[in-house]
Amino acid sequence: MFETFLSNDSHTALISTPFLCAQKKVGNMKKVFEKIIEGILACSGFVTSLTIVLIVLFLFSEAVGLFHSRVIEEGYVLALNKDNKVSELTPVQIKDVFDEEITNWREVGGENLPIRLFRLEDVTRYYTEEQLGASYENAGACITDLVERTPGIVAFVPRQFIVRPDSVHLLRDNTISLKDVFAGAEWFPTATPAPQFGFLPLITGTLWVSLFAILIALPFGLAVAVYMSEVADHKIRNLMKPVIELLSGIPSVVYGFFGLIVIVPLLQRVFDLPVGESGLAGSIVLAIMALPTIITVTEDAMRNCPRAMREASLALGATHWQTIYKVVIPFSISGITSGVVLGIGRAIGETMAVLMVTGNAAVIPTTILEPLRTIPATIAAELGEAPAGGAHYEALFLLGVVLFLITMIINFSVEYISSKTGAGFGRKS
Length: 429
Known about the structure:
Elements: H1 2-64, E1 76-80, H2 91-98, E2 116-119, H3 123-126, H4 129-132, H5 139-149, E3 153-158, E4 169-170, H6 178-182, E5 187-188, E6 196-197, H7 200-231, H8 234-247, H9 252-270, H10 279-303, H11 307-315, H12 320-331, H13 333-349, H14 352-357, H15 375-382, H16 391-428
Helix pairs in contact: 1-16, 7-10, 7-13, 8-10, 9-10, 10-13, 11-12, 13-16, 15-16
């Protein structure tokens, strides 16, 4: 009997040993497979993070080159008479001089002399073709001689046409400064002889349009989200939700056409404007575009509020609406914040629709009813025409950096406010 038991036990052990080995192999293979999956996920996260960092670095590296560019157009100089004591002009002063808004050297710290403008195409007014030569080989000597004998002249000419630099006075050509860019009130990148890269009109236009878009979209979005989550019955919600989500898939150019055909003429009639293209038109279009995002995210956040919290509030004597604004909304504040951030991102980064309805005027607006231009619209409209590597090209990249920083600051600010609000609600509850 004992021998039989031993033999049966030995037989069971012999059978179970290969089975256990097979299980062990399967377990090892699962671990290897899991490690491979973990490695793939880790690589995906690393590649994504690296890509974002490289994009930001590329953006900054291209943008920084603007501050190494010269104020005066590349390859050109501003030549004055030797006796003229003015040694330096700001980009704005250069523009005003050549726009004939400044007509006397006394206005820029010089002597009481009228300013005489000279451009290369004006040379035929002073010299004949025989004097200039058949191939304009004598043009340099003629221009230099003209600057030498004309006291109040300022000549904007290629550097090679000043054949005797010691006989004339060349204005100092500084590099573009931070003040010229961020405090500049004019955006005129193709101006000659000194392009204007003032960011103030573009930054102001972007902030105005985005601010009013959120002020319009947030109350409407929050109201619709509350209705869908807390008030509407199941049938109405199932009908509204797909329609609202469908709005997110409409191309921005369609919103632009809608704004151009409907909103712009309406605003022009209501406010008696000379033109309907304005910041307000852009804000309304952007608000409509941001609504689906705000509604969807906010409504999902509210529906995630635990049923027990609602029932506890009602059991303590609170009304349905008191429960909504004292329990549901504070509990969902992080989701509402996410919706707001995504909506702001949609508003700030939108290009085509804004370009179509805002008037595209690069001026500092004094009211929301005036035409303006945003940063994304400027980049989209001008990047294709800007020579690669030039000051205009680098200025557009710097605008991209500014847009990135604005978005980042707004996101951090909203997240900070949300965290403080959430912490306060947690302490109260």
